TrEMBL record:
Name of the protein in its database record: Remorin C-terminal domain-containing protein
Parts forming coiled coils: 25-67
Family, as annotated: Belongs to the remorin family.
Signal peptide interval: none
Residues of the Remorin C-terminal domain: 4-68
Organism (species): Genlisea aurea
Length: 71
């Protein structure tokens, strides 16, 4: 009887440890997903900025060509 009670207590403790471990793992995975989303947002914003610079440079070059042909 005492042995089965002890075994039961060990199982409960093991279940608590496993639950805690799973919670830590879930928290870490959520943090990783958040970080990945933040990085993707920054990447996207940087790509937009670069594309805008390129578009502005093309527009200015075209304006310079027009000015050159009018001159």
């Amino acid at each position: 009887w005492a042995a089965s009670r002890s075994t039961s207590k060990l199982r409960r403790e093991e279940a608590k440890i496993t639950a805690w471990e799973n919670l830590q793992k879930a928290r870490a995975e959520a943090e990783i997903r958040k970080l990945e989303m933040d990085l993707e947002k920054k990447r996207s914003a940087s790509m937009d900025r670069i594309s805008n610079k390129l578009r502005a440079a093309k527009k200015k070059a075209e304006e310079m060509r027009i000015s050159l042909s009018n001159g």
